[in-house]
Design a protein that fits this description.
CATH class: Mainly Beta
Number of domains: 1
CATH architecture: Beta Barrel
Structural class: mainly beta
Length: 465
């Protein structure tokens, strides 16, 4: 029962590609550790990126490590993202397009098994910006100050989840009210999971002062930060059958399920090595020329990343004609205010962050009852709002995201594999929209979920001569 070599090769390529992916064009990503990512898979993006209680039989939840135990079989997921962002400040407007791989994720699980191994890689933060301002000074006259940056931090992980099931007997009475038959059904399931995470990557930043008066030299300050941290995330999930309906053959045809879940990213030490380089430039007719007044400095920072906990719930209703409706909500809290602000610029600080999310998912018909692709597909709507993490003079950094998703099963796969698409609109700002920099971005995430065939051929024991 050993995974084949292509799986390992795909994971290696995913680690490399994910580390290089840059999926933001946000000036606000120059603060702190960059623009933090939720870690949601493409199938979760349309439902508010929820993950605490998002337990799915066919799609891998890449946020809660316990969710892998609810899968029916070995699962692979991946995808990429395209974004168009608009940055506005007063009458000034800038637009840009970016994109990149979102994640590569695996869950190894035998059909009918209770345990599951998961591993993969995904972006943890992104930085990408290029902004400038024109200012005036009594001595140097007019000058331009520019800020630019790129890079990001990736997260590689490996974990294990285990599920326990509780059963009960469902009895059926005859016409006289006497017990006629009984079947044993799963009444509730509980899973616990944990995973080890290694975060790594580099963030590059530059600040340039270009003075119009040729008497003065221009100045450029470049920094490159190498980031490293390791820690654990633990999670749990509970699913309980609230209601059920059986047909005349005593088969379950309708049900109502309650799911509860939570996860905690345990606090960890985050090390940063920052190399800073100061240089003076002279602008000539042939272009900028660096002069010999250069200074280099290396500084180490150790941040204590806080505990980040998330709780959520979900209700699922399945009807006799195959209709499935899922509604959920979750809440997240992170005490970033305990982190030292030594890494940040003057006037910038870490602040406690709160996140609320909600979503709804609808599948009109099951695979056996659907007459076309529109009835087989799953549709999602979601909302997510995060306030905090970074505090500026204008106020707390606030991000609001609306999303819509669509998932279509691949009929030819015979295994429940699917193509997933999500469209999301995000507004990011600090304080009131009219008081400063505001970002609006429209993005699309395209992903896929792949399963082996119904015989679970990815993990079939074989005999060789």
């Amino acid at each position: 029962m050993t995974p084949r070599f292509p799986f390992t090769l795909l994971l290696t390529l995913g680690l490399f590609s994910t580390g290089l992916a840059q999926t933001t064009y946000s000036p606000h990503s120059r603060f702190g550790l960059g623009d933090l990512q939720s870690g949601a898979a493409s199938a979760q993006m349309g439902m508010g990126q929820m993950g605490a209680a998002w337990m799915d039989r066919h799609h891998l939840n890449t946020r809660n490590p316990a969710a892998a135990a609810f899968l029916t079989r070995t699962t692979f997921g991946g995808g990429f993202q395209l974004r168009s962002e608009t940055i506005s400040e007063g009458d000034s407007i800038t637009r840009g397009e970016v994109g990149g791989l979102t994640q590569v994720a695996f869950a190894l699980k035998r059909a009918g098994g209770k345990g599951a191994f998961s591993f993969g890689a995904q972006p943890w933060s992104n930085a990408g910006y290029d902004v400038s301002q024109i200012r005036t000074d009594d001595i140097a006259d007019e000058y331009r100050i520019s800020y630019s940056g790129s890079g990001g931090l990736a997260q590689a992980y490996a974990g294990y989840a285990r599920k326990w099931e509780g059963t009960r007997w469902q009895t059926f009475d005859d016409m006289d009210g006497m017990p006629e038959d009984s079947v044993r059904i799963i009444a509730h399931s509980t899973a616990i999971g944990t995973r080890f995470e290694q975060r790594f990557g580099t963030l590059g930043r530059a600040r340039t002062i270009d003075i119009a008066n040729l008497i003065f030299l221009d100045t450029r300050v470049e920094t490159e930060e190498a980031h490293r941290s390791a820690g654990f995330t633990i999670g749990f999930g509970h699913e309980r059958l609230l209601g059920s309906r059986f047909d005349r053959d005593h088969k379950l045809v309708a049900s109502t399920l309650l799911r509860l879940g939570g996860m905690a990213q345990l606090g960890r030490s985050h090390s940063i090595v920052r190399n800073t380089r100061w240089a003076s430039w002279q602008t000539l007719s042939t272009g900028p020329l660096e002069v010999d007044s250069v200074h280099n400095e290396s500084t180490d920072f150790d941040l204590d990343i806080p505990l980040i906990w998330t709780v959520g719930l979900e209700i699922e209703r399945n009807t006799e004609d195959g209709l499935r409706v899922r509604v959920g909500a979750e809440f997240e809290r992170a005490t970033w205010s305990t982190v030292s602000p030594d890494l940040l610029d003057l006037g910038v600080g870490f602040a406690d962050a709160t996140t609320a999310a909600a979503g709804v998912m609808l599948t009109p018909r099951g695979m056996d009852d659907a007459e076309n692709g529109w009835q087989r597909a799953t549709y999602q709507l979601g909302w997510r709002r995060t306030e905090g993490y970074i505090a500026l003079d204008a106020g707390l950094l606030t991000a609001t995201t609306w999303s819509a998703g669509w998932s279509l099963p691949m009929l030819g796969s015979r295994s429940g594999s699917s193509l997933n698409l999500a469209v999301h609109w995000r507004q990011l700002q600090a304080g009131a929209a009219e008081s400063g920099l505001s970002e609006r971005g429209l993005g699309a995430t395209v992903g896929f979920t792949l399963h082996p065939f119904f015989k679970n051929q990815w993990l079939v024991p074989r005999r060789y001569d």
